[in-house]
Amino acid sequence: MMRYILWRIAAMIPTLLIISALIFTIIELPPGDYFESYISELQAQGEGVDMQEIEELRAQYGFDKPPILRYFHWVGGMLTGDFGYSFEYQLPVNEVVGDRLWLTILVSFCTILVTWLVAFPIGIYSATHQYSWGDYGLTFLGLLGIAIPNFTLALILMYFANIWFGISIGHLMDQKFLGEPMSWEKAKSILEHLWIPVIIVGTAGTAGMIRRLRANLLDELQKQYVVTARAKGLHPFRALIKYPLRMSLNFFVADIGSILPQIISGAEITAIVLSLETTGPMLIKALQSQDMYLAGSFLMFLAFLTVIGMLISDIALAFLDPRIRLQGGSAK
Amino acid sequence: MTSSPLPESGAPLAHFVSTAPFDPYALKEMTPAQIRVNSASQLRLMWWKFKRHKLALASGIFLAVLYLMILVSEFLAPYNLHSRNVDFIHAPPQGIHLFHDGTFVGPFVYGREMTLDMDTLRRVYTEKPDDIEPLRFFCSGDPYRFWGLFDASTHFVCPAKDGQFFLLGTDRLGRDVLSRIIYGARISLTIGLLGITVSFILGIVIGGLAGYHGGIFDLVAQRIIEVLQSIPSIPLWMALAAIMPVTWSPILIYLGITLILGLLDWTGLARAVRSKLLSLREEDYVLAAQLMGAKSSRIIGRHLVPGFMSHLIATATISIPGMILGETALSFLGLGLRPPITSWGILLTEARSVSVIAFYPWLLFPTIPVILVILAFNFLGDGLRDAADPYK
Amino acid sequence: MNSGADLLRIEQLGIAFKMMGGQLEAVRNASLRVLPGKVTALVGESGSGKSVISQAVMGILPNTASATGRILFCDPENPGNPIDILSLPRDGKAIRDLRGRRLGKIFQEPMTSLSPLHTIGNQVGEALRIHEPVSKAETRDRVEEMLGLVGFANPARTREMYPFELSGGMRQRTMIAMALICRPSLLIADEPTTALDVTIQAQILQLLRELQAKLNMAMLLITHDLGVVANVADEVVVIYRGEIMEAGPVETIFRRPAHPYLKGLMAAVPHFDMKPGERLKALREIPVNADTLIGKRKQERQGPEILLSVRNVIKTYGTRKSSWFGKNTAAGVRAVDDVSFDVRRGECLGIVGESGCGKSTLSKIVMRAVTPDSGSVTYFDRDGKAIDVLSSEGNDLKTLRTKIQMVFQDPVSSLSPRMTIQNILSEPLEIHDRGSAQERKEKVLRLVQAIGLDQSALNRYPHSFSGGQRQRIGIARALALGPDLMICDEPVSALDVSVQAQILNLLKDLQKELGLTYFFISHNLAVVDYMADRIAVMCGGRIVELAPRETLMRSPVHPYTKALLAAVPFPDLDRPLDFAAVQACGATGTASWAAQFRADNDDNALAAADLGGGHIVLARRNADVRELQP
Amino acid sequence: AARRLEPDFLVPLMNAGKLPTAAGRLPKNPRVVDLAAMGRDVGKYGGTARMLIGSAKDIRLMTICGYARLVGYDDKLDLSADILESYEHVDEKVFTFKIRAGHRWSDGRLFTAEDFRYCWEDVILDENLRKGGLPTDLLVDGKPPRFEVIDELTVRYSWDGPNPDFLPRLAAPQPLTIVMPAHYMQQFHQKYQNANRLAGLMKEQRTKSWVDLHIKMSRSYRPENPELPTLDPWRNTTKPPAEQFVFERNPYFHRVDQNGTQLPYIDRFLLNVSSSSIITAKACTGESDLQATGIDFADYAFLKDAEKRYPVKVGLWKATRGSKIALLPNLNYGDETWRGLLQDARFRRALSLAIDREEINKVVFYGLARPSSDTILPDSPLYKPEYAAAWSSHDPDAANRLLDELGLQNRDSDGIRLLPDGREAQIVVETAGESTLDTDVLELITDHWRKIGISLFIRTSQRDVFRSRTMGGQIMMTMWPGLENGVPTRDMNPSQLAPTTDDQLQWPVWGMHYLSNGQKGHAPEVAEAARLVELLKSWYHARTPEERTDIWGEMLAIYTDQVFSIGIVNQTLQPILRSAHMRNVPERGLYGFDPTCYLGVYMPDTFWYGEDIA
Ligand SMILES: Nc1ncnc2c1ncn2[C@@H]1O[C@H](COP(=O)(O)OP(=O)(O)OP(=O)(O)O)[C@@H](O)[C@H]1O
Ligand SMILES: Nc1ncnc2c1ncn2[C@@H]1O[C@H](COP(=O)(O)OP(=O)(O)OP(=O)(O)O)[C@@H](O)[C@H]1O
Ligand SMILES: [Mg+2]
Ligand SMILES: [Mg+2]
């Protein structure tokens, strides 16, 4: 196993290289570059631009050189911890992300937590009470969550949260706390705002998890070893947790690698609508304005999370099910 | 020898011998129902089991009707997709009445009048209580080109001549929301499924092979999955949308992009399949099949995947909303479908500001068919699952 | 011994299964009882409802079943207050309190009854943790003690292992340990010893008797082995197709069987004194036309004499724990240790041996389901072509897959749970493209009938069959392609003697008519005696003795063989098993062996010694052949 | 009444001795704003105004709206000295600027001729800082001015030829920079700073060269550097990146009200970064005290509704664009046949005539806008009704006739006209599709054009690629806002009517030609366009106001008659939301970037909070 892990870590290097090349290509694919979009944005407001200055900037950031050189420059920079420069913010990328990263982690973490806290009990309940009113009702609620597009849900929740609870529209905190240092009041304000994005982003994943957990559990519930456990006098619920649930976790564990990236990118639209101070809107904006180093480094960060997540998922899988042999072919 | 094998509690056991006739060759006679069951095929058995699940059956019928309906959207919709009525912009939904002043008139709506409140700049619609506009059925209304093939103008229901009938209200260009929902069903119910199909086939095949064979196959497949999973869809859409040729029709572009997304979307499923197969392949029945000389495809298809069916069904039904609403996120960023094509997702993106929720909530009506379809697919999936469940 | 009120009284029990197209009445009007401290044996035909009754007692009938009648349990802890188990809420507190603690159950199919994800120790100790306030350490000690009692040589190591790392018999012993760990007052044992070799079986029976005596434990014993019944039961109930046919004290049943079914059963028992060529007397004979069944012409025994040749095969399993840190084979288990033998065309080679000695592993190596560390397996085709089993590819492999078939030791897990019997049986035909769809259908029907099931079985799923029925389905599947060599791993262990007779006769007929070759693994020495032409005895991964049937049975040389033969229980009240004499004599008990058979930690000390007449025994290299002769 | 002359906000600083009193902070001769004459009230100090911005870059709104310029427009669009005490010019060739004595930068240092000199000699003329040479606005016939420091408070720029653009450029929303706080900027200049210190500063600011450092630290339009001394009414105190920018009053601001109270009244502006999609919603819940950007006419009803629930007021101003949105046919389109058609005035006129502007007005603008060609508004002294009416009536028949005349009489089975080479007449209009407005209008136009046998396809793409793709001839037509300045005076440069830059999407290649002095692109091949260029050139040399008026008139006539851009409606309304307590915000006004600088010419420094200050 140890060998396998080392081998996998080694395999990450070429994988990440391929990913970086792909990401670079995707970012380069749309015609134009940041400066084009910068100029046109200014023009749309009726402002003029000093083309001379733009040309200088272009030269400064190597946009007059072939993309391949820029690619190597970028990758080389990342290896030394230099993630490039954001044109939009006119700051090094590391500095731009700043607080947003923490808030993103906060939102993602809460979302994942809520998703699990909600999905597991409900999934188990639905499986053990198949076709009860509870099952139907919770299924319906869950599906409602994914049937309504995130941004619509965001608008609705935001609107009613404001009307009913007086929570200020959008953002992760009241305006007055923006840029303030952390305080009790600020934390309270953050909590007050947090539930909206968490619900919105969480619903989709929750419903999927409930349904899949339910399906997997229903399959396992009939297995003989559950009967054995019951014959030992184990409480059916404990039996369920210990045996079928663990079996059903297979799909869940297979997925953990992509949970974080998925939630982060799934939250993008919501974050834009709600104008959250997370990285999502920043990424989208960077992509739209072709602020390439910002976008690229960000995507690489997500990719890195994914790759690590996959490794963790594989190791967890082997822990979960001792029968699984990751290394070998089909012969024993 | 006694007539009951059971003595008093605690008493010594007497020798009991049954006196019932005994014939080792006797066969239990079967009822006709049993005979029918015994000679049915597995599919037929499943169908019978499926039928027992009433809600699933109802959902199945509902979906079938829906899919039949999209064949005749033009006929069912009271208006055309793009018919505008500039006098009825943002008109709220209208109730159908049967009685006027206590007398039966048949289905009709009251005529309405729009006034513009110049102070708040809102359009105010007032019902004219004596303007009865009876609905017409199988009537001639907006002319359309049926599936682009021939001209026709028959509709299932139309407003009274020179009247109006907006059951679900109108949007900001005065287009009938109901008609747009009916037309939108065409795209929403079809193209997305294509994406699901592609991603499912790929997911099962690649995940299946990786999980079943493991080793180098698994290694390569996993690296591909890693790479694909690392590329979020939004930047990809942005890139693709930028390089797709202008001359392609929007529907073609959308189809293309859906397919591409399908081609990229299989990774999650593949991983689930793979990890499940990694453990299932250790089962004895797989070994049994191998020893019979079954090929991998057969083992995966006949032995392993069925053991995983519930998960697949659940995943499929849960991906349907994603596919129906797939374009909303993109439309939101201005990358999705463009007029003249519409879908439920597009209709929803049109309601993208808080003011809509406050003033024109009927623009959110398209969520209702989405919810219904998703529920129907899920219940259908439940029914299928149960039908395939040997323990039921 | 206290014989107060009945511990368990089953009154007028009826159990029916909801099925497509109607009900299946599995049990009708069954009444039986178990006295405290006594053993009631429930015997009967395969599929007659024994296991279902035992499930009803535990309150763990499947959802599709419905039960009528009463099952009264009179807990000695709470005497005079019988509880009707059927009336307790399903999985309620009351019944949960009984299960595991007061009622222990040994399931018929040990493989599927254990969770593959949890260690043996975890699963065995679970009942203890549920019902008794025990500390971790205490649990561990009790578990290890229990594992030791059921015959595990190294309980500490076994505790850490996973079920799939154990042999069939080991899993069964795990089940026994699990059922016994809380010292229940009633043990429901559903075929507890089918997968055990006779010596271990005797050991387990001994253990049960001790517990009975010590704790006044009663036992509802479901078994097909009339020998076991004769040796441990106090009362016997005979059930046939869901109805009680005969009941009485063991004496009466054995000495004065009255019902024709019971008589037939007694008559069908294979015994060691059968004349060559004598057929077993099955209750029902099903005439089988080998041609139409297998669909293949009667074939002369042609081709080279040797069909399969196994040479120096070695297989070592690494344990999972060690596999976390690189390949560490040193810590592994040597399941098959330098085994060589030949299988001749048309013969039946019987394999007997200690539970966990590597029989199944060996058979899987021959099937190429397990790759040995070294050694070779060669198959000789009818036209003399030698195929290397371990490395063949393409066409050769395809031939092998049709020519060699296997009956798995564990019938449940070898049947795809989501395929109907129809599909399971026609699958090999489909794979190898035999016949049209219609022909396949007909053939499947003939196969099903040949194994004593009827058409109504075709559209059911494996889980809805009884243990014996599933076993027969496994046999039918192996027969479907008409193989040359059948590897049967305990093919009839779950069958009652009459159905067993029926199946054995079928196999014999096929052997005679089609020249089928069998590689027959069994713990039932009488069965092996009936079937085999030559018998190999395995112990600790090695073949310790190999001889023609007669020779081996009459004049065994190896101490292990002798011990085996001595531990066979006879269905005869006058030949009781001398439990005291049965000692641990397997791989763990080598110490008691004569010096010339012991390896004494020297890997290379032993070699096969030929005693002539095809009689080979494993002994020290320097041992004198004559010394070995009995 | 005893008026308080010091804002509470500054009192602590003054008490601490860090700040002089008002008298010490104001120039000897401050600019007096006569509020009464403007019909406004004298206000009182205090309060914080919150404003929502769509991205951090929008902090430049404060520079635009603050509108402190050397010379600036008033709300009648007349030029007058603002920061300068006075200015004079001789024939628009020699400009003499007089600085207010005692005028100080926001850090308290005196503002003198040295600041002009530094900017001219050490920045504009510095080869490192100005690699591309001088800004074109400073060149007349390719030659820079002579710069002289007359005395401490007087500077002079003189050219050989007239530079009528000079003062308007200084008054522009994004002004020409000719002055910098020398005392502050010198520390970043190679010439004044020792190399070691400079290197240290570069490291601190993470710039690669001192040039970058200087550029970065001197940005005044987008005031990202909180240290940079400014002359604006409010100065930024927050360093980006941030979600909220705090602008505080400049204690040395040079304007006073008629009572001598130093402006601005409002102490602070808080600019909160929000995504543009929820600015409206937030503004409607009272989270903004002054909002014009990010809210749209379409939201008016919603905004108005908020008046009921929150202390806000919504007014409607008139947008100054020549047309809210216009269709710009690319006269440099790559396809030969199409280019021929697009360059033919009859074709453009037909397209214009086919549009039912009344319908669009009704559907999208509640009938409150005015159908018009893309031209100036009646608010401009140069306005004539015929400009607006040119080819902007709804006359499909005339349009059809024009098209038939052009040889497009053949149609296919769907009624779509065929080009001479047999292709269908399909026009692809590109739009940024950022608001539904564009697509809605296009959808309506699609129907209108179908009636004349032209099919329209909408393609949304990122607007940043429009310019280069239009240049490359890949875009046939774009949807874009109409003329920038819809309320010009004759003294404003009419260059927007002629091909003068490469970002004019109807003729970028010609514009490039002009811009590059004939180096790139090519000269207009359409006579009328060429004439526009000529007229523009003659405007520069026109001596009398009448001459200028005439030139403007002729250009406007040509532009509208030729339908170089197809206007739809103009005089659309822009909602302006303000706190109900805020005073002096005009009810009506002209809203636009150029020339009114959004709120700039209406002087937000005179806005104040009445009643209880929020
Ligand atoms: N879950 C089930 N659903 C339907 N029928 C069942 C089910 N379980 C058992 N049966 C049927 O009930 C009958 C009795 O089964 P049971 O398992 O009790 O047999 P048994 O006496 O234990 O046989 P064996 O000795 O072969 O194990 C069989 O005919 C079997 O097919
Ligand atoms: N997958 C495995 N991993 C590790 N050890 C195994 C595995 N399979 C079998 N073994 C070990 O190999 C030995 C032989 O097992 P095998 O199943 O061949 O025994 P057997 O002779 O068939 O016994 P039984 O009669 O009890 O079925 C046992 O000690 C068992 O624990
Ligand atoms: Mg049984
Ligand atoms: Mg075995």
TrEMBL record, chain A:
Protein topology in the membrane: Multi-pass membrane protein
InterPro entries: BPD_transp_1_N (IPR045621), MetI-like (IPR000515), MetI-like_sf (IPR035906)
Classification via Gene3D superfamilies: MetI-like
Keyword Nucleotide-binding assigned: no
Subcellular location as annotated: Cell membrane
One GO BP: transmembrane transport
Cellular component GO terms held in the UniProt record: plasma membrane
PROSITE patterns, alphabetized: ABC_TM1 (PS50928)
The entry's keywords: Cell membrane, Membrane, Transmembrane, Transmembrane helix, Transport
Residue ranges annotated for the ABC transmembrane type-1 domain, each copy included: 101-311
Keyword Transmembrane in record: yes
Membrane-traversing stretches: 5-27, 101-125, 137-170, 251-274, 294-320
Family: Belongs to the binding-protein-dependent transport system permease family.
This protein's name: ABC transporter permease
TrEMBL record, chain B:
Domain ABC transmembrane type-1: 185-381
Primary localization: membrane
Subcellular location: Cell membrane
Pfam name, any one: BPD_transp_1
Matches recorded under CDD domains: TM_PBP2 (cd06261)
Keyword set includes Metal-binding: no
A single GO BP: transmembrane transport
Transmembrane segments: 55-77, 187-212, 251-273, 312-337, 357-380
Record membrane topology: Multi-pass membrane protein
GO cellular component: plasma membrane
Family: Belongs to the binding-protein-dependent transport system permease family.
Name of the protein this chain belongs to: Peptide ABC transporter permease
Organism: Metarhizobium album
From TrEMBL, chain C:
Any Gene Ontology biological process: peptide transport
InterPro entries: AAA+_ATPase, ABC_transp_ATP-bind, ABC_transporter-like_ATP-bd, ABC_transporter-like_CS, Oligopep_ABC_C, P-loop_NTPase
Membrane topology qualifier: Peripheral membrane protein
Record GO cellular component, one term: plasma membrane
Keywords per UniProt: ATP-binding, Nucleotide-binding, Transport
Location of the protein in the cell: Cell inner membrane
SMART domains per UniProt: AAA
Pfam families in the cross-refs: ABC_tran, oligo_HPY
GO terms for MF: ATP binding; ATP hydrolysis activity
Domain ABC transporter: 8-266, 308-565
Family named by the database record: Belongs to the ABC transporter superfamily.
Stated name of the protein: ABC transporter ATP-binding protein
Organism, scientific name: Metarhizobium album
